[in-house]
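Known limitations

Files may contain more than one protein. Parsers should not assume a single record per file. Below, a two-record file is shown to illustrate correct handling: read the sequence, read the token line, then continue until end of file.
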Amino acid sequence: MQGSSLHISNTHRILQQLQKDQLDVQVADKSSFSSLDDAIHKLLPYHVYQGALPSDEDFNRVDDEFEVVATQVLKRTQAMLNKYRRLLFVEAKRMSPSSEMVMIDRTFNQEERANLTQDKRLALMDPGKAAVIFLNTTLFMFCLGCFGGTIC
């Protein structure tokens, strides 16, 4: 109960401050700045309303990008799991470790290094997109770990 009233009071205070800032912007104080703090205090309300809300087109573009990345992650994960199952099956039939297993490990490591290099290159060229891909991949892998392979 107390958490709910705290949320309402915080919401009320934020709305009050927004209304005060809006009034300050509409009735501008045109006096000179007396200090740096005074300048910040007088100019800050103008920056609250700067910028525009995302449009439906922006949301659709982000959804499309997310779908592409999610599809890539699912395909890569499925390919990796299929490869792992196949290797387990083949190795289970053997009585002793094989040289093929060493070669498969090397191939897997080489593919992972190539993917890491590609991810690093993407991070250098487009950090924002790389961050989104990283967060989506991390979230997906977290969901796999938490729910035993089911997507949350």
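...continuing to the second record:
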Amino acid sequence: MHLTCSAQGTNYPLTVATTLKHFNCESFASWELLLNSVECWLLTTVLDRTHAKWLYGVLLYWMAFVGIYPEFPAGSN
């Protein structure tokens, strides 16, 4: 699944809330959707990397990334 960042200016809490509404922690697709939602938000909305929202988003991004690739960085895909 590849999502494009078409929701420029989207409010992060609403985007994540929509994603998390149907989130299944055992589903690869759920983790991937969360990862893509956070990535799009970071790249299109929060451009100030010193802002607390940016730091929170980066932490959530890496949590979702490890959810998709639990063997990272030692394993293989």
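Parsers that stop after the first record will miss the second one. For reference, the second record is described as follows. Residues 28-44 form the longest helix (17 residues).
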